[in-house]
Known about the structure:
Blueprint lengths: L8 E8 L4 H12 L4 E7 L6 H6 E3 L9 H4 L7 H6 L8 E6 L13 E6 L10 H5 L6 H20 L6 E4 L2 H11 L4 E2 L18 E5 L8 H11 L3 E4 L5 H7 L4 E5 L3 H10 E6 L8 H7 L4 E4 L4 H4 L9 E4 L4 H13 L4 H8 L4 H19 L10 H7 L1
Parallel strand pairs: 1-2, 1-4, 2-3, 4-5, 5-6, 6-7, 8-9, 8-11, 9-10, 11-12, 12-13
Helix pairs in contact: 1-15, 8-13, 11-14
Amino acid sequence: MSSEESLRIAIVHEWLTGMRGGEKCVEALCEAFPQADVFTLIHLPGSVSPTIERAVKQTTFIQNLPGARTHYRRYLPLFPSAIRSLDLDGYDLVISSHHCVAKGVRVPRQALHICYCHTPMRYLWTKYDEYFSKGRAGFFTRAAMQVVARPMRRWDRATASNPHHFVATCQNVRQRIREIYGRDSEIVNPPVNTALFPLSAGEGSYFLMVSALVPYKRVDLAIEAFNRCGDRLVIVGTGPNDRALRALARPNISFEGWRSDDELRQYYEGCRGLIFPGDEDFGIVPLEAMSAGKPVLAYARGGALETVKVTPELKTGTFFHHQTVDDLLQGLEQMKSTRFDSGAIRRHALAFDREIFKSRMKDFCLSRWRTFVARSPEALMPEQVIAAVR
């Protein structure tokens, strides 16, 4: 075993194709552990931050499959075998950044495996219909998923015993890990770069969405609502639903594609508020907007309930309670008529700063490492196995 100063650390993340919430967590982990190497199913060079780019060590055969660079999700049934093909020999600490298959990576016996879980695989459990129902996916995709979904669920549950420890992004995900995987977890909220998104004094001239253009984000719902009300909506993000969503939108809605962090800061500064209509596992974007002092209109489910505050003492946004156009528009009118304290909104966001994430994750990993290197029989077994033995 290595000393803490010379630990060989591997960070395993499903894919590196853009800087979304999961990749921002990987970036912060790379900063917390600058000696770490990053392993992934597929990497599109130039699509993630220089911090991650420098750390990428190995990809899998998915990288070279036809069309994988733009349609890698079509190879979902191959992901379990691909993740197991990664070679982690010689590493002491493995941190899997998991929302699909990362926790299924093969880890050397002498290595400690900590899973930072964004969510159990949403394609199979909580969002299956939103990805694979009629109208959401083509006939052949739906037919294929009917065949592979059950064995993939079995695999997903079976590999839940792989990590020695789980860390959840929030209470919402912690409960999901308990229900689906039968494992307990610590909570470390994802990192928010509050220094990058400073307080904005301006009122703003448009409403903003920052989102991957995928079904469960419910960008379509926001478009339908703003088509009706006529207010200006700016959408920052890319994804497989780009063309279909553009076809729905009227001229008051603009699509800005992917933007750098510096450009994104300007979009936050110029907006009146953020629109967040999906049921998210956690959601870093609302906290980025709040870091800039901007209120958030959020669907009252999932992680938003833990980050958006609507109390007599603190108001950082408003909620709508049903994913309908009428409810979203009612919430929008409520947000427009509410006086928000932008300074109080930012102070709330500071509790989620990335330095806090880095410190907590580093402390958690190293404290578990100290226990692990004691080399007691229990230190070499996952918590679930220990409970079974007892």
